[in-house]
């Protein structure tokens, strides 16, 4: 069972004024830093893969490097760091109830014209008697994402996706949709 303590979804940076101060403010800063690190590392890996081997090489980054980056950040932070989506490619990216609710809200805000590059939610929750600071940052679908996540995927990329992800439903996106989100769950002592 999850109990919301305090949270807000905003199109912009998560404001410390809207969250409790003290330890949770520190957790907010830590979570934001983790998301920046994850996004930056993944983007760099994807760009290098696209330059060196094209989309099929980028698929390897998403299937191998992204989980490795998330696991490393989880280990270093003592929390849980990952990517989630409502349309998953990798079964480990299925959102929990809290994440699903946030992703659905992100989709509603996207349809209302929100700036997806700034869409985030931070919230203190209690789960199983433990307090956590949770943060999600939307991943917008950019033009380059459509190579593997769009409606028209070339045959070689489609084959690679089908081979790696037999249950893939992370296709059919258009530019400007919410592709998913980076998510961080940090215990608060």
* N- to C-terminal distance: 19 Å
Strand order of the largest sheet: 1-3-4-5-2
Query: By helix and strand content, what is the structural category?
Result: alpha+beta
Binned strand content = 15-25%
Radius of gyration, rounded? 17 Å
Q: What is the count of distinct domains?
A: 1
Count of DSSP-assigned helices: 4
| Series of H and E elements | EHEHEEHHE
Segments where pLDDT lies below 50 for 5+ residues?
A: 1-20
Main beta-sheet strand count, sense and barrel state: 5 strands, antiparallel
Mind explaining what this structure looks like?
The structure is a single chain. Helix 1 crosses helix 4 (155-164). This protein has helices at 23-77, 97-111, 146-149, 155-164, and strands at 2-11, 80-84, 119-127, 130-140, 178-188. The two termini are 19 Å apart. A five-stranded antiparallel beta sheet has the order 1-3-4-5-2. A hairpin with a 2-residue loop joins strand 3 and strand 4 (130-140). Helix content is 44%, strand content 24%. It contains four helices and five strands. The chain has 189 residues and is an alpha+beta fold. It has one domain (2-12, 22-188).
SSE layout and pairing:
Blueprint: E1 2-11, H1 23-77, E2 80-84, H2 97-111, E3 119-127, E4 130-140, H3 146-149, H4 155-164, E5 178-188
Antiparallel strand pairs: 1-3, 2-5, 3-4, 4-5
Summarize the structure.
This protein is α+β, with helices and mostly antiparallel strands.
Record keyword descriptors for this entry.
about 190 residues; alpha+beta; 5-stranded antiparallel beta sheet; disordered N terminus; 5 strands; single chain; 4 helices
């Amino acid at each position: 069972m999850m109990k919301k303590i305090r949270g807000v979804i905003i199109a912009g940076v998560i404001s410390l004024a809207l969250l409790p101060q003290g330890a949770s403010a520190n957790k907010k800063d830590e979570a934001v830093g983790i998301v920046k690190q994850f996004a930056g590392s993944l983007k760099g890996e994807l760009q290098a893969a696209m330059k060196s081997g094209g989309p099929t090489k980028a698929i390897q980054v998403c299937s191998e490097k992204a989980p490795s980056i998330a696991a490393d950040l989880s280990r270093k932070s003592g929390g849980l760091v990952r990517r989630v989506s409502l349309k998953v490619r990798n079964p480990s990216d299925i959102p929990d109830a809290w994440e699903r609710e946030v992703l659905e809200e992100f989709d509603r805000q996207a349809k209302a014209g929100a700036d997806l590059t700034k869409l985030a939610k931070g919230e203190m929750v209690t789960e199983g008697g433990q307090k956590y600071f949770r943060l999600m940052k939307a991943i917008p679908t950019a033009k380059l994402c459509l190579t593997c996540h769009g409606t028209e995927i070339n045959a070689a990329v489609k084959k690679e996706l089908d081979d790696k992800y037999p249950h893939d439903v992370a296709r059919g996106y258009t530019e400007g949709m919410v592709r998913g989100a980076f998510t961080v769950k940090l215990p608060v002592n």
